[in-house]
Amino acid sequence: MAGNIQIKHGTKMRMAFDVPAGQEPQFSMISTFNKALDESAFLVSVPMVDGKALVADETKKILFRYGEGEEQAIVAGYVDDVVKEGIRRYWKVRRVTENRQFIQRRDVRMKIELPVTYMQDTWALNSEGEIDKEQGETMDISNNGLAVYMNRWFEVGESCIFTLPRLGTASDGQPEHEVVGAICWMRELPKGGPFRFLAGTQLRFSNLDERRQMQEYVAYVKKRYKL
C-alpha cells in the first residue's frame, strides 16, 4: 500500500459490490469513514439496507467511492471483522491493491474490440536494441480513455504507451495511432481466456493537436463500425 488512506473522519462513502469485468458497479449503499487503522485496513460504519444493518460477507469484494468533483477516488477491500467501539459497530475493511481514480466521463465509451500493442520505455531491450511490445485488445474506447485486455499487471498511476491499429485505407481511414495512458484501475479476469487482466486508462495529451487526432480516430471508429 502507498500509505494510510487519506480520508477525513466522517466522510460519506458510496459503496458497491465489485462486479465482473465489463459491468458497471452500482454504488447504491452509503457508509461513513471512521479512521485508518494502518496502511492495510480502515474502519467504516455498517451500511443500512432497507432499514437493517447489512450483514458482512468476507468473501465479497467491496468498492468504496469518495471525493468531490469530476475526479473521485475508489478504494477496494474485504470486510475482515466487525469492531465495537463504545455503542457503535464498524466494519474493519482490509484493503486490496486496487485503488483507482474514478473519472466521470463526458464522452461516450464505445465497446469495440481492436487489436493494440503496449509497452513502457523502461522495459528491457531485445538483441536488436528495441523494446518488444506486448499484444492486447480494447474492450472499449473513448476520446479520453481506453479499457484494454492484457497479460501484464500494472500499478495504478503507471503510464503505458498504446498503439492503436491502422483502420481503413490510406485515402479514407485512420493511420496507426500512438497514445499514452495512465492506469486508473486493474482487474484480474477469470481463468481460461486469452487475457489475464483488464486495465482502465485515462489518456494524456501534451497538446491540443494530439487530443484532436484522438478525437478523429474515435469518430472514425464510430462511423466505420456504426456504433
In a nutshell, what does this entry contain?
The protein is mainly beta. 7% of the residues lie in helices and 48% in strands.
Describe this protein's structure.
There is one protein chain. The protein is mainly beta and 227 residues long. 7% of the residues lie in helices and 48% in strands. The protein has one helix and 17 strands. A hairpin with a 2-residue loop joins strand 7 and strand 8 (88-103). The protein is elongated, with a radius of gyration of 20 Å. The relative contact order is 0.13.
The topology string of helices and strands comes to: EEEEEEEEEEEEEEEEEH
Please tell me how large the radius of gyration is. 20 Å
Strand order of the largest sheet: 1-2-3-8-7-6
Strand fraction? over 45%
Give the tally of β-strands: 17
Helix content: under 10%
General form: elongated
Structural class: mainly beta
Number of helices: 1
Report the mean per-residue pLDDT as an integer.
89
Main sheet record:
6 strands, antiparallel, barrel
Distance between the termini: 39 Å
The parts where pLDDT drops under 50 for at least 5 residues are 99-105
Task: Give the tags.
mainly beta; six-stranded antiparallel β-barrel; 48% strand
Itemize the secondary structure elements and their pairings.
Elements: E1 12-17, E2 29-36, E3 41-45, E4 48-49, E5 52-53, E6 62-66, E7 71-85, E8 88-103, E9 110-111, E10 115-119, E11 134-141, E12 145-150, E13 159-164, E14 167-168, E15 173-174, E16 177-188, E17 197-204, H1 208-224
Antiparallel strand pairs: 1-2, 1-6, 2-3, 3-8, 4-5, 6-7, 7-8, 9-11, 10-11, 10-13, 11-12, 12-17, 13-16, 14-15, 16-17
